[in-house]
Amino acid sequence: MDMKLLIKATIMWSVAWMAIVVNAATVVPDGRGNGMGNTGVTSADYLLAPFYNPALVALHRDSDKLGVLFPGVGVRLRDTDKTLDTVDKLQDEIKAFKANPSDTGAEARLNSYLDQLSDDKPLGVNGGVVAAIALPVDVLSTNIFTRGYAEIIANSDIATTGTTEQRYQNSNVDVIAFGYGEIGVAIAKRVNFLGQDVSVGISPKFQTMRTYKQAITVEDFDISDYDKSETKKNAFNVDLGAVWLYEQFRAGVAVKDLFSQELNTLDIGGVSRYKLNTQITVSGSYALEYFTASTDFDLTKQKRFTDQNDDTQFLRFGVEGNAMGWAQLRLGYEIDLEDTLDNSFTFGVGVSPADLVSFDLAASYAGDNQYGLSGNLAFTF
């Protein structure tokens, strides 16, 4: 998977969606789980299982023989202070000021936009794509999967002294990005252990990680110019999971990225470090044929860039109503205990005629300028 193309597509797609005020998704672009508050550790189906909990690969109907997920896509934008819009207006005023330095109106507006940017919160963009092929057999269920995602953070660094020309020439937007790709196989088995119905799973996988860092003047800033520097690391990793089943109740735990990884950026105004730390999530759900309710709770923080205020730790809730297996309506709520992201309401719909083809679409809303959108197409036989 070409991570440069993924990040470039993420950026361009997010900017395009922003223009019509709908953006974003989570690192797992799953229309069903995203609509249910981004839950899935005990509620995802066997096709999406590797992205939540490998143990779920073994939880399928007797009639299921093959599943194909292609594609699942999503993107998220967090632009709390409308930074992209402000930069665009600032660049217009710089052009006007350079064309006519005596235009006091353009100079005043230019300085006003610089002052506004100096107080802006970081701009964040992330997005991803997934695909999977599942073979749900009783002997040993398997799922071959791939995933890629990108995270981009932009911080304004605005000069506060000097002439107007010196201010905008010495003002930068610092862009830092992380690109990730993985391919692996999830293997799971449902067993009776000490009289209890339990499913256990493991996902060995190969990872590719990249970081990018760039300082761009406000005059020349374009968020698609993220890739002027790159560091890269390949690694082997493992996900683990288990689910306990009792009648309509499920309880489970997922351990993502058992071996923590770290990757430094190039030294551009200092070295930044991205930490892909081990994530442990516990979950409970109640599933009927026509109704599902689920709760996921992260026991660990997700660190990301260690010199950025971008840690997250989520508590998630979701429900789904299923109309005779042909259509679904989903609602959810997601709380970031680290307050990096605003709490989000999520909603989604699904269409699954004859349960052979399913199309799921989800969106999230967390106040002005934090939006999400994701969707996926799946086939089951």
What do these coordinates show?
The protein has 5 helices and 17 strands. The radius of gyration is 22 Å and the shape is elongated. 15% of the residues lie in helices and 49% in strands. Helix 3 (83-99) packs antiparallel against helix 4 (104-118). The longest helix has 17 residues, at 83-99. Mean pLDDT is 89; it is low at 6-26. It is an alpha+beta fold and 381 residues long. The protein has a 14-stranded antiparallel barrel. A 3-stranded antiparallel sheet has the order 8-9-12, with no helix packed on it.
Quick overview:
The protein is an alpha+beta fold. Helix content is 15%, strand content 49%. The radius of gyration is 22 Å and the shape is elongated.
Q: Characterize the biggest β-sheet.
A: 14 strands, antiparallel, barrel
Number of helices, where a helix is a run of at least 4 consecutive DSSP H or I residues? 5
Based on CA atoms alone, the radius of gyration comes out at 22 Å
Distance between the termini: 27 Å
* Strand elements, count: 17
Low-confidence stretches: 6-26
Order of helices and strands: HHEHHEEHEEEEEEEEEEEEEE
- Average per-residue pLDDT, rounded, comes to 89
Biggest sheet strand order reads 1-2-3-4-5-6-7-10-11-13-14-15-16-17
Structural shape: elongated
Beta-strand content estimate: over 45%
Q: In percent, how helical is the residue content?
A: 10-25%
Helix-strand makeup class: alpha+beta
